[in-house]
What we know:
Elements: E1 26-28, H1 30-42, E2 50-57, E3 63-70, E4 78-83, E5 86-91, H2 92-98, E6 101-107, E7 112-117, E8 123-124, E9 130-132
Parallel strand pairs: 1-6, 2-5
Antiparallel strand pairs: 2-3, 3-9, 4-5, 6-7, 8-9
Amino acid sequence: MSSCTMSPPAASSCASSVESVVGSVVIITEKAVGEMNRVLTEKNLPESTVLRIGVAGGGCSGFSYSLGFDDKCDEMNDVVTSQHGLRVAVDRKSAMFLEGTVIDFYDGIERRGFTFENPNAKKSCGCGSSFSV
């Protein structure tokens, strides 16, 4: 489990076609979508905004999760789905590391943030924000 901050959107336009949740690389819980929608509203982001999920090299275990808003997606390079009304884009390079990952939102006394349950992770660091395969 890990906490992530959400980054501001990049400038550009997003493709409009969206696959069903059946073709999803990651599953996002309703609770997580609720928090993401709260942030979208708070930041007054346009309806065309997508949640971009990815993996970057780095972190203490080799890879780290990235989670942010984007106003562009590329059907050739992204897997685009709709989950609980939220459009989600995962770049195809990250998809192989994220297949089957469940993203949830934890809101407890000791911490608050998004969590990742990744069945592909062989090892993760103590903070939970990086992993290895």
